[in-house]
Design brief:
Two copies of one chain form a homodimer.
Chain A (H helix, E strand, L loop, with lengths): L2 H10 L6 H12 L4 E2 H7 L5 H13 L3 E4 L7 E4 L12 E6 L5 E7 L12 E12 L1 H4 L2
Parallel strand pairs in A: 4-6
Antiparallel strand pairs in A: 1-3, 2-3, 4-5
Helix pairs in contact in A: 1-2
Chain A binds a DNA duplex (30 and 30 nucleotides) through helix 4.
DNA sequence: TTATAAATGCAACTCTATTGCATTTTATTT
DNA sequence: AAATAAAATGCAATAGAGTTGCATTTATAA
């Protein structure tokens, strides 16, 4: 993605333009799989770990990323493709490959009826994590 | 639940009978909400943290508990009511209350068709986490 | 009752994530 | 373009979650 596009995207989300944020956002754009803090630390050794953590947090707060609960411990993050700051649409599914360990957002929308909940439970949002073998691993 | 019942349950899962395991299992039986390591540490200060961790792990390995990915960081565990060692049925949903922070297993079975996945993805299992307000919180 | 295999407690350690603070950088205003 | 205020960064320290090794104790089965 072009520099000016990245810049625009940050500005749209009311985020200041910094080297770290530009690099991290570009990294997200270039990867279809969800990204962990570990990935970023390995890739961007020139930035402090803390800065990378704070970058993820600010991106998440400003609706650029969504957090995906990690399998064991550490979380991963995915780009919010169809979201804007006002309305998040997180009702897609996350596919976690048990072979390569990657997590990926699958754009198939997920519908679970609130009617299936017991009385007096109110649904706000839903996270669906599908475990299995991803396309890359199944073709090897 | 009676002592003898707890004992039988542990034996069924090929787990040795110890004080810690009996107490922890009883605690799970008495609570409808999912249990965190923190809950256990607070409740059972007479047992070492490590022992409680290992108790959870052995319960999980032997099909007595299932692990539910925590909101931020620490995981919680739920009793496997309808599971046996041979066949786990984890396709129920987990309800996480954004008000009181509790997580709970809801017995409504969840069906997501593998057909909704893109080509060459193979589904093995699925975790559904519904966020919202639980019955207790909505009536307060 | 004894033998052995497993569970426990303790200490140390690893990994993940956060906080405080001084410094630097960004964006805005003049 | 320079000055200013607000925000981001880097570093060090700290907090929290979870694990490992090992000596000791306990449970089960012979």
């Amino acid at each position: 993605m072009k520099y000016s596009e990245l810049k625009k995207s940050l500005k749209n989300h009311k985020l200041r333009i910094t080297d770290c944020r530009m690099d991290v956002l570009e990294y997200f754009q270039e990867h279809t799989k969800a990204v962990s803090i570990k990935d970023l630390e390995d890739k961007f050794q020139e930035y402090d770990r803390v800065t990378l953590y704070r970058t993820l947090h600010s991106f998440e707060e400003n609706g650029l990323l969504h957090k995906i609960p990690g399998d064991s411990g550490s979380a991963v993050y995915g780009l919010c493709k169809d979201c804007d700051v006002a309305a998040h649409h997180h009702n897609h599914m996350h596919f976690r490959c048990t072979s390569c360990g990657s997590t990926e957002c699958i754009d198939t929308p997920v519908e679970i009826k609130a009617a299936t909940l017991p009385d007096n439970y109110e649904m706000a949002s839903i996270d669906v994590i599908v475990n299995g073998i991803c396309n890359q691993c199944s073709s090897n």
